[in-house]
Structure formats: C-alpha cells, structure tokens
Design a protein that fits this description.
The complex is a heterodimer of chains A (211) and B (132).
Chain A (H helix, E strand, L loop, with lengths): L2 H20 L4 H30 L9 H4 L2 H26 L3 H31 L8 H34 L3 H34 L1
Helix pairs in contact in A: 2-6, 2-7, 4-5, 4-7, 5-6, 6-7
Chain B lengths: L1 H9 L12 H30 L7 H21 L9 H31 L3 H8 L1
Chain lengths: 211, 132
C-alpha cells in the first residue's frame, strides 16, 4: 500500500468514524420520519375541516343543534373502542418487533374488531341522524359535522383495510425488514387517527353538549 | 457514498431497544403503552365528566375541555407515537412544531377572519329589504 493510499484510507476511516459518531441513521428512522411528515400533512388537512366546523357550528338554519342531537353515551363507547384499539395496535407492533406470532396476529385481530365496532357505531349514528331529518343537507352546521366526522371515519375504514393487508403481508412474507417498516407506518397511522379523534370528541361532541 | 449505503443496508433496521426484543424488554415496551393507556383513559374520563357537570363555572368548561384534549394529545404523542426528546426524534419534533404552527394559523386565522366578517356584515333582514 502506497503512502498516498494509506493516507486516503485513514481519511476515509476518520470520515466513517465521524459518521458513526453522528449516528448512521437506520432506514427505519428515515421511513418513520417520512411517514410522520405525511401524517402531519393529514393533520393540517383535518385542521381545515375543524376550522370550517368551528366557523359553522352556530349556523343551524333553524334546525337542531349539537346539544339536541348528540348522544354522549355513544361517543364514550366509540372513544373507549378507539383508545383500546390504539393500545392493542401498540402491542401488535411490539409483537412484530419480537417476531412473536401470537402477539402480532392476536393484537392485530383485536385492533381490527375494535376499529370495526367504532366504524359501525359511527355509521349507526349517521343513519340515525339522517332518519331524524338531521342529514348533511339540513344546515351548514350539519354539513360541516358530517364532513369532519365522516372524513375521520373514512380514515379509520381505510386503516382497517391497511391492517388486514399488513396481517396478510406478514403471513405471506414473514417478519422481513421492509414488512416491519410497513407495520411501523401502519401503527403510526392508527395512533394518529386516535389523536384526531381526541380533538373530534372534545371539540364536536363534548363542547357541543356543554354549550 | 455507495459504501455508506451498503453499510447502511447491511446494518439495516438496527435501532437500540427495538431489535430482538426478548422477555423483559418486551414487557418494558408493553409497559410504556400501558402507562399511555392509563393516562389517556384518565384524561378522557375527566373530559366526559367535566362536559356534563354543574359543579364548575359553566363558561370555564370549553377551556377545560381544550386543555384536557391538548394534554391527551401530548400523552398519545409521547407514549404511543414515541415522539420524544431523544436524539433519533429531533427531526420528528421539528416537523411536529411546524405542523402545530400551521394548524394554529389555520384554526385561529379562520375563526378570527370569519368572526370579523360576521361582525361587519349588515343584518340579514336589512339586506333582504334592500333587495326588494
């Protein structure tokens, strides 16, 4: 090895060491960061729907207001289902990291049924409102309500499809690194939906009933 | 550069505390979610209680609900999404700060502008009369 090559090699090693000192960033963290950016953009979109709802909440056009329409017991059960599903989704991601089939499939299945029950309760509430003549066409308040809460319900429904896809992918391809990153993204998505639901039940349902 | 990439790929997905979870680590991770679940349940229960109670001054209820909701979002971020102050999370926190800024601008901006327009608009019956 010539002196020049040795110098170049040691320079390279120093660079490498410096890189490692700064932390070679794993693909997992980069993927999580990218998906986090997407989630934030989704939250920004929801903030526009929240702003619309807050502006229009008083415009009932002589129709029923939130205090007359909302059933807090239903909302409480929905909240419990989604919160528990967030917890079991966390357990499922731990199970995937640990490559334990019972943890992963079991927790994912529980998450799926809790999410399905949430969507079912929301669909029942919407149909009940429409049957009572308080559909989205009744007033600006109800248009904003159905858009905001319906958009969240749509996200949960898409999340349920994604959940089944992840179970199928782990079943078919095993706990591969790229599959595990997808499971990570799914769990981030599911937890973000729960955060948005916190804003929904506080701002729409509880404040609607309190005032 | 390609050497870095190859190196990155061979050591792919190696994050301390996340790979090869076994026994105690597994329970420890589950414990984090359990603490999050307990805190979130507590905050949710208080929110639902406060919304209906007559024990406190009524105009303070929406403010209390907003504070509880923000606290619960914080709990979810830390215990479920793992957005912490750790070195791996710096970029996530910065992105979150930017997201929060945009959300606040959209919501307060919309409410402010629309309240102002509403305040300055002629009452509806007068507009109807002018159109006759």
């Amino acid at each position: 090895m010539s002196a020049f090559e040795a110098t170049a090699d040691s320079a390279y090693r120093t660079q490498l060491a410096g890189h490692e000192a700064a932390g070679v960033i794993s693909k997992r963290i980069i993927v999580g960061y990218g998906f986090w950016i997407f989630l934030l953009s989704d939250i920004v979109m929801f903030s526009a729907l929240f702003a619309t709802y807050a502006v229009l909440v008083g415009e009932t056009a002589g129709g029923p207001s939130g205090a007359e329409l909302f059933d807090l017991r239903n909302t409480a059960v929905q909240t419990a289902f989604l919160l528990l599903s967030s917890f079991t989704c966390g357990l499922a991601s731990i199970g995937a990291e640990a490559r334990r089939d019972t943890w992963f499939y079991g927790a994912m299945a529980v998450t799926f049924f809790l999410g399905l029950a949430f969507v079912g309760l929301e669909a029942r509430e919407f149909m009940d409102l429409v049957a009572r003549g308080a559909g989205p066409t009744r007033s600006a308040f109800l248009s904003a309500f159905f858009t905001l809460v319906g958009c969240h319900g749509l996200h949960v429904s898409i999340g349920l499809l994604w959940l089944l896809t992840m179970m199928a992918q782990v079943f078919a391809k095993g706990y591969r690194a790229d599959i595990l990153r997808r499971v990570l993204c799914f769990s981030l998505f599911w937890h973000a939906l729960d955060i948005i639901w916190v804003a929904v039940f506080s701002m729409v349902y509880l404040m609607g009933v309190a005032t | 550069m390609s050497q870095f990439e190859r190196q990155g790929d061979s050591h792919d997905d190696v994050v301390p505390g996340f790979d090869h979870l076994e026994g105690p680590d597994l329970l420890k991770s589950a414990g984090t979610y359990l603490i999050g679940l307990a805190l979130a349940t507590l905050l949710t229960a208080v929110s639902f209680f406060i919304a209906r109670t007559t024990l406190v001054w009524q105009p303070s209820i929406p403010v209390a609900l907003a504070v509880l909701a923000i606290a619960q979002m914080g709990v979810h971020l830390v215990f479920f999404l793992h957005i912490t102050t750790g070195p791996d999370s710096t970029n996530n926190v910065l992105a979150l700060a930017f997201g929060v800024l945009i959300v606040l601008l959209i919501i307060t901006g919309s409410l402010w502008i629309m309240a102002n327009l509403n305040h300055n608009m002629m009452p509806m019956d007068q507009i109807m009369q002018m159109q006759r």
